[in-house]
Amino acid sequence: MTFGEILVILLNFAGALAVFLFGMKLMSEGLQKFAGNKMRSILGRVTGSPVRGILTGAVVTTAIQSSSATTVMVVSFVNAGLLSLAGAVAVIMGANIGTTVTAWIITLFGLGESTSAFSLPMLLGAISLVFMFAKRSRLKSIGEFVIGLALLLIGMEFLQRAMPNLEQYPAFLETLARLEGFGFWSLLLFVAVGALLTCLVQASAAMMAITLVMCYNGWIGLDAAVALVMGQNIGTTITANLAAMVANSDGKRAARAHLVFNVVGVVLTLIVFRPVLNLIADITTAIEGSNPYTPVGAEGYEPSAIPMALSLFHTFFNVACTLVLAWFIPLIVKIVNLMVKDKPEDEEYKFRLKYIGGHWMNTAELNMEAAKKEIEEFSKRVLRMYTFLPGLRTAKDDEEFEQLVARVEKYEELTDRMEIEIAKFLTKISEGDLSHEGSQRISAMLRVVDNLESIGDSIYQIAVTRRNKREQEVHFDQHLNDNLEQMKQLVQHALDVMDSNLRGDYDHVDMESANTAEEAINDCRNRLREEHLEALKSGRYGYAIGSAYSSLYALYEKTGDYIINVSEAIGVKFKEN
Fold it and tell me: Structure pTM?
């Protein structure tokens, strides 16, 4: 085989693989668009039993045809605190089951006779659907899915054609035969090769397709093919672990759990390898009428026998591993907790509901008390977030400044999630049998969490304004800085009064102090606005300085409005009673 022939084979193979991967991508994206946010919302609600998590992972992965997409979503949900680590492990187990569907699509429709007879008309019809219904997103998404499926099948046909006839190169066949001749060590070798190639290709489905084509062409036997598949299950975990590089400790643990589950599954399967393969061979013989161990060219050899056996094994492997390891989810969680230690900054930004996470009290009164305690924690987070603002003015360099902005941004994300979860809990309480007073209390709490989240937004906007000012090299003189410092102190006092009211029993809300703090903020804002207008008229400073300055004192005043709303929400409620 000359260098030119090798180059042509590699280019044809790479092109066929590109068509296959593009088809997989279109299938996945088409279904995800069709489902809208339902898939993400389904995953986000998985906090119950392992069975529910496993079923959810299997269904979602079957639908979007990408276990990597599912596991990356899982990592993001754990990172955001919307999914527990145990729930994530269950979903990942289910994702491994769902990904076996791809192998069956290839085995049943993508091998053997040319698929052009139905894949090309399918492609034509789908493209027509996309153009005809370009403005109807759901029908367009279905069209994209069908285009992806057609391209996947066409890619499989191209892969088969790209494979050279190895009968013309007996030396290569002899090399493969020797690699399969070392017994158990051969299995470990092919597991390692499967894992490495999947890491490089970044698509276990593509490696599965290549393995199936190799089996169909008689390049490798069933044992080597099965070992490659087990290696692919390990290699596919690289995607989630790469995604987790920028995640917090819990996100990294979710990715490591994927790795632990697949590695343990491979080890357990290797222990019972021969009995399992014999069972798979018997089932395949009953279905295909040919034993997958029949040598190529021998009497009774059927090219589709090994791909069928491989698909059966792939399903058996993932289902059996899930059924066994589902009982050990708590142990897997302990293992990944040991593998990834918490960092101090991760603990600070960790989203964890202390009082309403995952349990439900028997009475509405107890549930409302839990919600009140959670709101107190919410207020504590907001006050902590506000303490980052002074550092934005005194930061020594850009690195320190950006670190502070990043902390504010992460806290703003925390306030968003806290509002959502607490509001969901309160809404659930309101659906029960409540007294008139209880209903008013729930309404008051909903207003409180809404305004606490708005305070977080305002603090973030102050940080963004400070960043823009720094980037534009806008500098305030000492008088302007003193004015903003005074406004900041007044808002801090208002926050302290608000926090004190939230930590009280709601029966004695100190509205006098809250109103006094709000009036002081408004008076200060009015004074600064008058001075600002006079300064602009006299030309004391230019537009850029004036714009940044007025934006900041206005944001502080706006923050004060949200702060008084919190005290008014609980104060008005109890005044009416």
Answer: 0.56
With the C-alpha atoms ordered 530, 531, 536, 537, is the resulting torsion angle positive or negative?
positive
The Cβ of residue 576 has, within 10 Å, a number of other Cβ atoms equal to: 9
Among candidate residues 356, 376, 484, 368, the one with its CA nearest the CA of residue 434: 368
Rounded Cα distance between 92 and 69, Å, is 11
d(CA 532, CA 541): 9
Residue 166 has pLDDT above 50, yes or no: no
Q: How far apart are CA 328 and CA 90, in angstroms?
A: 10
Among residues 386, 400, 396, 551, the alpha carbon closest in space to that of 460 is found at: 386
**3-class secondary-structure state, position 356:** coil
Dihedral (CA of 89, 77, 204, 257) sign: negative
Predicted pLDDT at 507: 75
| Inter-residue contact 310 to 103 (CB < 8 Å) | yes
Using only C-alpha atoms, what is the Rg of the chain? 31
CB 517 within 8 A of CB 568: no
What is the SS3 assignment for 249? helix
Name the most confidently modeled range: 85-99, 198-212, 440-454.
440-454
What are the residue ranges of CATH 1.20.58.220 in the chain? 351-575
* Highest mean pLDDT out of 69-73, 154-158, 192-196: 192-196
**Cα–Cα nearest to 237, from 70, 4, 83:** 70
Within 10 Å of residue 323's Cβ, how many Cβ atoms?
A: 12
Residue with tokens 């309480």: 429
**What proportion of the chain, given as a percentage, has pLDDT over 90?**
17
User: 351-575 maps to which CATH number?
Assistant: 1.20.58.220
How far apart (Å, rounded) are the C-alpha atoms in residues 405 and 459?
A: 10
Q: For residue 65, how far is the Cα from the chain centroid?
A: 16
pLDDT 10s digits, 379-412: 998 999 999 998 888 888 888 898 888 888 888 8
The angle, 0 to 180 degrees and rounded to 10, between the axes of the packed helices 85-98 and 249-271 is 50
User: String of b and e for 137-147 (b: at least 16 CB within 10 Å)?
Assistant: eeebbbbbbbb
Q: Quick: pLDDT tens for 460-511.
A: 999 999 999 988 888 899 999 999 999 999 999 999 999 999 988 777 788 9
